[in-house]
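Input record (one chain):
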Amino acid sequence: MKAAAQRQLTQELNQAGASPTEVQSLLPIAASLSQLATRPATTAAGRVRRWPQAVRPVGWITVGVALGMFVVLISQAVLPSSWLFPIQKMSDSVAVSLHAPYRATVMMKRAQQVNQLVAAHASSHQILTTLADYSHQASAYKATADAHYAAFIYCQANLQQAASTASPSIRQAIAASLQSLETT
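The corresponding structure, as predicted from the sequence alone:
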């Protein structure tokens, strides 16, 4: 303990009513307390104690789950041309398997993505692949008891908008997709 701190402590102990012998016995204890406060906790082997061993994996798992959830959330807004699209498709399929009516949301998302890809002048392959995925989702949704007409109207509007600016081959594929859903 520094001399100034020792004098200050002596004065405070005297004011509190401690006798000179009590002050002399308390000063070494106070000095060791200040040393204890600055040292990290150590184990019996002298190593610095950090988080318990069981807490570390839980922490890493928590960070991993949070990061995974963040990636899944971010992937929901990407187009099929993004490298995150496979994550979107996987999370959509998991969501549909857990809650079948979610298929309508996936179907509407794919129709919107076709429209966005056409507007962005994406490759024909990318557009046709997304259109095929839409058709698959729409057929599966139409076969369910939960199918709602409004969801198909939304998809039809998106696909008709896409067809109005698409190349002739894409326009023909969109028309065929819409036609096949009307006849089934």
